[in-house]
Write the structure tokens for this entry.
Amino acid sequence: NAGVTQTPKFQVLKTGQSMTLQCAQDMNHEYMSWYRQDPGMGLRLIHYSVGAGITDQGEVPNGYNVSRSTTEDFPLRLLSAAPSQTSVYFCASSPRDRVSNTGELFFGEGSRLTVL
Amino acid sequence: AQSVTQLGSHVSVSEGALVLLRCNYSSSVPPYLFWYVQYPNQGLQLLLKYTSAATLVKGINGFEAEFKKSETSFHLTKPSAHMSDAAEYFCAVSRTSGTYKYIFGTGTRLKVLA
């Protein structure tokens, strides 16, 4: 049972470099999202998607891009990495309930990114 | 706009004692509320959720939470703490006027003392 798979688990970047965090889910979930987790700040929503071809911004979208070409994949791109983007990133998906939006979030194990 | 406030970033209890983790929310529409748990170096997993049915919600591992509209609260409790309960706990709210965003609190780290 793969669930939500994130790669890589660890990454070190230099300031200005770009990279993509991969997220894939095999549960046919419509809803996918990216969060960053920082000490004392909980999880903050970066971007989310309610289906293939549809994305929207969360609380902290600056410096990140996403796309959703398939139901399964939702990559997060860092365009020009900055030290402020050092964080743990979580991808989460949900079987969206169209009426009530009460779907449980299923999380990946996280990707720890350090920007020097 | 929705928001969630968790009072107390760190809570310590003795093994066998009552666990009480506090969560207050603000929402312009009837909220859906969740508690998630995160063990070290893992992702989050759902403990329980409130979706406007029963106000007292029972979850996994003996946890429960009560939705109190008058107090805008959704506190998490467990009658008797176990060492394995040591983790970080997050309260979250979803359902914003037609959009679909989960907003999380800042988390409470629970320490269980032997």
About this structure: The CA atoms of residues 92 and 104 of chain B lie 4 Å apart.
